[in-house]
Amino acid sequence: MRLVSWNVNGIRAVCKKGLFTPFVEDLDPDIICLQETKAQQSQSDLQLPAYEEHWNSAEKKGYSGTANLSKVSPLSVTPGLPKTSIDQFGVIADVFGDPNNEGRVLTSEFEDFYVVNVYTPNAKDDLGRLNLRHSQWDPAFLHHVQQLERTKPVVFCGDLNVAHTPDDLANPKSNVGKRGFTSQERQGFQNFLDAGFVDTFRLFHEGNGHYSWWSNFSNARTRNVGWRIDYFLVSASLVERVTAADIHADIMGSDHCPVSLTLKP
After folding, report:
1. Number of structural domains found in the chain
2. CA dist., res. 86 & res. 83, Å (int)
3. With a threshold of 0.85, does the pTM exceed it?
4. Residue 165: CB partners within 8 Å, gap ≥ 6?
């Protein structure tokens, strides 16, 4: 089974470029998790009869949003963080809006595991959303996946908007303390690992040079001056089923590229 995650930075834009269907044909995923769809399902141009679609779109038009597409019908699909997690960690609106209304989480239950698609809030250039991210969102999301894990193993994926280690971005020294590479964001990711979840890409690939997002400026993608901020993490009990985890930097259409996870039965 192949799972693929991609921040498309606007599904309508990718479809208009004629790049979405070739991506699906090339990777032939069983499950696709999209972030930053920036659309309602009714606005989508997807033509994928083999897939069942589930969307969690932001209330604000043209902003954020997630979608899960799967060849196998999920047992259940739940949008957003559960109220228990929201209330326990005080995930509330800030000056940028209410993250609970931004379509950032979509949980699909399958027979032997959950798949959780997440588009983590960006800390912002001025770090104006760092406190929400560090004190509220990351702990609430971890709580959510840990609660799911009580029932069955969890795969979670998406744009987590953080480079975990210096190997996960091309210029770590000049980016220390900046959004995506603050100590708070990196600790939030480390907390997932400390809780027992496994960064699957690092099971197969060491060192730097492996990136999933590049700035649109200064020819960054061609020069591979990027960041690894898109991930697949799994419960420890699923690790023995992981046969591959890859970054597909050759697939164009967004400032992010897809990342994938392959599981054996």
Report:
1. 1
2. 5
3. yes
4. 186
Cα–Cα distance list, 76 to 55, 72, 81 (Å) = 13, 12, 15
Active site residue 119: yes
Catalytic residue of the set 26, 94, 112, 159? 159
pLDDT (0 to 100) of residue 45: 83
Pairing, β 31-35 against β 105-109: unpaired
% of the chain surpassing 90 pLDDT: 99
Domain containing 92 equals 2-263
The span from the CA of 16 to the CA of 80, in Å, is: 28
CA angle centred on 214, ends 208 and 220, rounded to 5°:
90
Question: Are the beta carbons of 45 and 67 closer than 8 angstroms?
Answer: no
Identify the CATH number of the domain in which residue 66 sits.
Answer: 3.60.10.10
For the chain, what is the radius of gyration of the CA atoms? 17
Partner residues linked to 94 by β-bridges: 97
Could you say which of 119, 138, 168, 211 is catalytic? 119
